[in-house]
Amino acid sequence: MLKADYSMDMNLPQSDVWRYLEDWSNWAKQVPGYQTHKNISPTDSIWELHGKAGSITKDVKLYVKIIEITSPSTVQFRVRDSEDRCLGSGCFELSPLSSRSSTLACLLELELKGLTGKISAPLIGSLLPGLLEKFVQRIAKPLIEADSVALSL
Questions:
Q1: Is 147 a residue whose pLDDT tops 50?
Q2: Where does residue 104 rank: exposed (0-12), middle (13-18), buried (19+ CB within 10 A)?
Q3: Which pTM does this prediction carry?
Q4: For 55-77, how does the pLDDT look when each residue is reduced to its tens digit (9 = 90+)?
Q5: Which of 52, 107, 142, 144 sits at 20 to 30 Å (Cα–Cα) from 21?
Q6: Burial code of 35-54, b = ≥16 C-beta within 10 A, e = fewer?
Protein backbone atom coordinates (compact mmCIF):
# COMPACT_ATOMS: atom_id res chain seq x y z
CA MET A 1 0.00 0.00 0.00
CA LEU A 2 1.36 3.39 -1.01
CA LYS A 3 0.53 6.28 1.29
CA ALA A 4 1.06 10.01 1.22
CA ASP A 5 -0.26 12.91 3.22
CA TYR A 6 0.17 16.64 3.10
CA SER A 7 -1.28 19.53 5.07
CA MET A 8 -1.23 23.26 4.54
CA ASP A 9 -2.19 26.20 6.74
CA MET A 10 -4.11 29.00 5.03
CA ASN A 11 -5.04 32.49 6.14
CA LEU A 12 -8.62 31.79 5.17
CA PRO A 13 -11.58 30.89 7.38
CA GLN A 14 -12.74 27.30 7.35
CA SER A 15 -16.10 28.33 5.84
CA ASP A 16 -14.44 29.89 2.77
CA VAL A 17 -12.28 26.85 2.12
CA TRP A 18 -15.22 24.50 2.71
CA ARG A 19 -17.41 26.26 0.11
CA TYR A 20 -14.75 25.47 -2.50
CA LEU A 21 -13.87 22.00 -1.25
CA GLU A 22 -17.38 20.61 -0.95
CA ASP A 23 -17.85 20.92 -4.73
CA TRP A 24 -15.39 18.27 -5.85
CA SER A 25 -15.57 19.51 -9.44
CA ASN A 26 -13.43 22.40 -8.18
CA TRP A 27 -10.64 20.16 -6.95
CA ALA A 28 -10.83 17.59 -9.77
CA LYS A 29 -9.33 20.25 -12.03
CA GLN A 30 -6.39 20.67 -9.66
CA VAL A 31 -5.10 17.08 -9.93
CA PRO A 32 -1.67 17.03 -11.62
CA GLY A 33 -2.12 15.72 -15.17
CA TYR A 34 -5.82 16.64 -15.26
CA GLN A 35 -7.38 16.45 -18.73
CA THR A 36 -11.12 16.31 -18.11
CA HIS A 37 -13.79 14.91 -15.81
CA LYS A 38 -17.40 13.89 -16.14
CA ASN A 39 -19.98 13.84 -13.36
CA ILE A 40 -21.99 10.61 -13.41
CA SER A 41 -24.00 11.32 -10.25
CA PRO A 42 -23.69 13.60 -7.20
CA THR A 43 -21.16 11.14 -5.75
CA ASP A 44 -19.56 9.53 -8.83
CA SER A 45 -17.31 10.90 -11.55
CA ILE A 46 -14.79 9.82 -14.15
CA TRP A 47 -11.50 11.69 -14.37
CA GLU A 48 -9.07 11.49 -17.25
CA LEU A 49 -5.43 12.21 -16.42
CA HIS A 50 -2.21 12.29 -18.40
CA GLY A 51 0.75 11.17 -16.33
CA LYS A 52 4.39 11.65 -17.13
CA ALA A 53 7.43 10.39 -15.22
CA GLY A 54 10.66 10.90 -17.10
CA SER A 55 10.19 9.34 -20.54
CA ILE A 56 7.16 7.28 -19.43
CA THR A 57 3.73 8.68 -20.24
CA LYS A 58 0.32 7.15 -19.59
CA ASP A 59 -3.27 8.22 -19.96
CA VAL A 60 -5.41 7.06 -17.05
CA LYS A 61 -9.15 6.98 -16.52
CA LEU A 62 -10.06 7.12 -12.84
CA TYR A 63 -13.43 6.46 -11.25
CA VAL A 64 -13.87 8.64 -8.19
CA LYS A 65 -16.62 8.08 -5.65
CA ILE A 66 -17.38 10.43 -2.77
CA ILE A 67 -18.05 8.18 0.23
CA GLU A 68 -18.87 10.75 2.85
CA ILE A 69 -19.08 14.50 3.24
CA THR A 70 -19.22 15.86 6.77
CA SER A 71 -19.71 19.61 6.64
CA PRO A 72 -17.60 21.67 7.23
CA SER A 73 -14.62 19.43 7.74
CA THR A 74 -14.32 16.12 5.88
CA VAL A 75 -14.59 14.66 2.39
CA GLN A 76 -13.82 10.95 2.03
CA PHE A 77 -13.44 9.36 -1.39
CA ARG A 78 -12.44 6.18 -3.19
CA VAL A 79 -10.66 5.92 -6.50
CA ARG A 80 -10.00 3.11 -8.96
CA ASP A 81 -8.69 2.89 -12.49
CA SER A 82 -10.65 1.42 -15.39
CA GLU A 83 -8.90 -1.95 -15.07
CA ASP A 84 -9.09 -2.21 -11.26
CA ARG A 85 -5.28 -2.35 -11.10
CA CYS A 86 -5.12 0.77 -8.98
CA LEU A 87 -7.45 1.01 -6.00
CA GLY A 88 -7.33 3.71 -3.42
CA SER A 89 -8.97 5.90 -0.88
CA GLY A 90 -8.38 9.31 0.52
CA CYS A 91 -9.78 12.15 2.50
CA PHE A 92 -9.62 15.86 3.00
CA GLU A 93 -9.72 17.16 6.56
CA LEU A 94 -10.35 20.83 7.08
CA SER A 95 -9.90 22.27 10.55
CA PRO A 96 -9.98 25.81 11.89
CA LEU A 97 -6.85 27.34 13.38
CA SER A 98 -8.70 30.52 14.30
CA SER A 99 -11.72 32.40 13.01
CA ARG A 100 -9.58 33.62 10.09
CA SER A 101 -7.32 30.67 9.31
CA SER A 102 -7.56 26.95 8.72
CA THR A 103 -5.57 23.82 7.91
CA LEU A 104 -6.31 21.65 4.90
CA ALA A 105 -4.92 18.12 5.08
CA CYS A 106 -5.15 15.39 2.47
CA LEU A 107 -4.37 11.69 2.84
CA LEU A 108 -4.17 9.30 -0.10
CA GLU A 109 -3.63 5.53 -0.04
CA LEU A 110 -3.18 3.48 -3.22
CA GLU A 111 -2.86 -0.23 -3.86
CA LEU A 112 -1.34 -1.23 -7.19
CA LYS A 113 -2.19 -4.72 -8.39
CA GLY A 114 -0.70 -7.13 -10.90
CA LEU A 115 2.77 -7.32 -12.37
CA THR A 116 2.60 -3.77 -13.71
CA GLY A 117 1.66 -2.55 -10.24
CA LYS A 118 4.60 -4.34 -8.64
CA ILE A 119 6.97 -2.90 -11.20
CA SER A 120 5.63 0.66 -11.04
CA ALA A 121 5.02 0.84 -7.26
CA PRO A 122 8.53 2.08 -6.35
CA LEU A 123 8.36 4.88 -8.92
CA ILE A 124 4.79 5.90 -8.06
CA GLY A 125 5.54 5.64 -4.34
CA SER A 126 8.45 8.05 -4.73
CA LEU A 127 6.36 10.52 -6.75
CA LEU A 128 3.16 10.36 -4.69
CA PRO A 129 4.16 12.72 -1.82
CA GLY A 130 5.22 15.46 -4.25
CA LEU A 131 2.12 15.03 -6.39
CA LEU A 132 -0.13 15.24 -3.34
CA GLU A 133 1.66 18.38 -2.13
CA LYS A 134 1.23 19.96 -5.57
CA PHE A 135 -2.45 18.95 -5.60
CA VAL A 136 -3.23 20.54 -2.22
CA GLN A 137 -1.33 23.70 -3.15
CA ARG A 138 -3.30 23.90 -6.40
CA ILE A 139 -6.56 23.58 -4.44
CA ALA A 140 -5.47 26.45 -2.20
CA LYS A 141 -4.23 28.74 -4.98
CA PRO A 142 -7.58 30.01 -6.35
CA LEU A 143 -8.84 30.52 -2.80
CA ILE A 144 -5.78 32.54 -1.80
CA GLU A 145 -5.89 34.55 -5.03
CA ALA A 146 -9.60 35.32 -4.60
CA ASP A 147 -8.94 36.42 -1.02
CA SER A 148 -6.11 38.71 -2.18
CA VAL A 149 -8.40 40.32 -4.79
CA ALA A 150 -11.14 40.82 -2.18
CA LEU A 151 -8.68 42.45 0.21
CA SER A 152 -7.46 44.88 -2.44
CA LEU A 153 -10.99 46.09 -3.26
A1: yes
A2: buried
A3: 0.86
A4: 778 898 999 999 999 999 999 99
A5: 52
A6: eebeeeeeeebebebeeeee
